[in-house]
Amino acid sequence: xxxxxxxxxxxxxxxxxxxxxxxxxxxxxxxxxxxxxxxxxxxxxxxxxxxxxxxxxxxxxxxxxxxxxxxxxxxxxxxxxxx
Length: 83
Description:
alpha+beta; Alpha-Beta Plaits; 4-stranded antiparallel β-sheet; 2 helices; 48% strand
């Protein structure tokens, strides 16, 4: 089943982790519908929202890999809507 979901990513300022996020998102580009990043220079964090469309397994795999990165905090929500 293909579902729509949202992955929220918060990154503490860390160039290595930022590059790792970019590489992971690129490798899962087939399920990414859109994304938006907002840096907060004052607090030294960045927030990224990623809209995904894929199987639960694909979305969970991406979320799990992101969550294993240093200085990266992740939360995901998958809708019950099948597309």
